[in-house]
Every structure is written in C-alpha cells, then in structure tokens.
Design brief:
Blueprint (H helix, E strand, L loop, with lengths): L1 H25 L1 H12 L1 H13 L1
Length: 54
C-alpha cells in the first residue's frame, strides 16, 4: 500500500514537471525576450541617465 502511494505521488510530481516544461517550451521566445531585457536593464538605465545629464 505504501508503494502505491509513493508511486502515485511521484507520478503527480512527474506530470507537473512535464506540464511546466511543455508550457515553458511553448513560450520560450517570450521568456528569452524578458531575460534579454532584464540583462540589459542596467545598461539602458545608465544610458538614459547619461542623456539627461548632458
């Protein structure tokens, strides 16, 4: 009985991981764009401040 419970919990966790990966893979271009914008945020903020100072 304990083995069945353990396997069912692992199955539910596996299905959740599969669904998360599937959703991430279908939205990968949006995620990459957000990551790129977040990476360049300090540079763009510095350029905006530099333009206001001049």
């Amino acid at each position: 009985m304990c083995i069945i419970t353990g396997l069912s919990i692992l199955g539910i966790l596996g299905w959740g991981a599969y669904a998360a990966v599937r959703t991430t893979w279908s939205n990968r271009s949006t995620i990459v764009r957000y990551a790129y914008d977040f990476y360049n945020l300090p540079e763009t903020a510095y350029q905006a401040v530099k333009v206001k100072v001049k």
